[in-house]
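Exercise 7.
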Amino acid sequence: MNYSLAVFLINKNARAVRAIYEADAPGNTVKRSLFKTFDPSLAVDDLVIVPTDTRHKFTVVKIVETDIDLDFDTTENVQWIVGRLDLANHATRLQQEQAAIAAIKQAELKKKRDELSKALFADYSENLKALPIAQGDTTITPAAE
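Solution. The predicted structure, written as tokens, is:
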């Protein structure tokens, strides 16, 4: 018996799910690993945090199948899911950052426009104001031939 599956014998709320570490692509054979959880809300395409033997001992996988029928004779060591990776807060934060960057860019543009206008009008105000385009004259007269 695989003792990493013992919880399924003693708790009816335990769920088995399969997940992948790498992107599942056509023609690409991707290893599907078995994990266990008590979370009834986990579904296909959810990203979850699981234990690993690399870096900080955790990584993210994508659930590809839920409520698996178990083979209690498998030799695979079935790990617990640590938790769901909630991307909603991250997506909101990214949107807020983009709005802030857009506001900063708009402020920079206004500042540059104001500074350039002030510098030009300081020395050449009369010359610039005398230009037809500055008077709103949009009539274009054809050049004499």
